[in-house]
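Q: I'm building a small set of examples for a reading group on sequence design. Run inverse folding on the following structure and report the sequence directly after it, with nothing in between.
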């Protein structure tokens, strides 16, 4: 599906939000490069956001002696209900899933390529 943007940078998809008043001539097609660059950028931003939450948890819980390297550390503990790291592992994995669900939903409904602050607000809306 071709996408076009108006002078304000709003991305409009043909067949959904395209203007019906003949003003399509004033729109510029969003380049494949713009779309190709935006997706990995925001994926990386999401990965960094998740990693920061893991680091923040480690710092806040240093007295427990429990520390995680990354979100990839959690599944092995979530598989053992008797492990002392089980509850937090389940909590982080559930939150991680909700983060990516929120990102996918935002991506499917976005009409503009968001600013960093706008995208961070999406991430912040998912509570750990």
């Amino acid at each position: 599906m071709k996408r076009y943007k108006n002078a304000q940078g709003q991305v409009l998809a043909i067949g959904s939000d395209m203007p019906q008043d003949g003003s399509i001539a004033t729109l510029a097609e969003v380049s494949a490069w713009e779309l190709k660059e935006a997706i990995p950028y925001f994926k990386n931003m999401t990965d960094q956001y998740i990693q920061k939450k893991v680091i923040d948890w480690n710092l806040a819980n240093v007295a427990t002696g429990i520390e995680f390297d990354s979100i990839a550390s959690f599944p092995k503990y979530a598989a053992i209900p008797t492990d002392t790291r089980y509850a937090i592992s389940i909590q982080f994995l559930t939150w991680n899933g909700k983060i990516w669900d929120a990102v996918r939903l935002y991506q499917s409904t976005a009409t503009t390529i968001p600013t960093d602050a706008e995208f961070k607000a999406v991430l912040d809306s998912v509570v750990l």
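Strands lie at 3-5, 11-13, 28-29.
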